[in-house]
# Entry
Amino acid sequence: MTAGRNSPADGPAAGVPVVFSWSAGKDSAYGLMALLADGRFRVVGLLTTLTEGYRRVTMSGVRESLLDRQAEELGLPLTKVWIPPGCPNQLYEARMTAGLAELGAQGVRRLAFADLFLEDIRSYRERWLASLGWAGVFPLFGRETPTLAREMIASGLRATLVCLDPTVMPRELAGREFDAALLTSLPPAVDPCGERGEFHTFVHAAPIFRRPIPTRPGEVLEREGFVYSDLDFN
# Structure
């Protein structure tokens, strides 16, 4: 599949409308690709949590401007849910509920996630969504992550490590490309897709992007126990 073609905006109008919980990373991109290939659904938008004050994607620290560019290249509207630093779960749910209420008014009742194998996280999401009259969609759940990681790379998806946990991974991997060489560099205990929070990525090219996003690794810094590579436009 060639980058720049088959973007969500170019897809058919049939299917159940669904919004994708978009992290800006590789799992989200590959999950969105899988969902677009599933004729049962019609992706109508993205939803992302950002941290107030920092104006960055929560967890990964990706700049809001880079997130906006991804939505532009995907041709999908982006709903931003703003939460404070160290947001307690009750407030997180309240902010997310408000964001979903706006989407629900447009007839959407499905929220998709790129979760891979953590059963407790999936169960939590399903219970919370059910309380709102929504349902979860999990296009990648249950896939073997070593195989999945290689499939992502082979598909043409390109991503950069923007955040990592230095207690389980070498700091020097921050800013590295997510590629075959990286997979061989990961410590044995680290999941190849970083599903346990070992690392987070930013996708700068994918078959579903209209154009690649030119980026460059910036300053590497440590904050609140995580190491970040401050990615920016090239």
Remarks:
- Residues 1-5 have pLDDT under 50 and may be disordered.
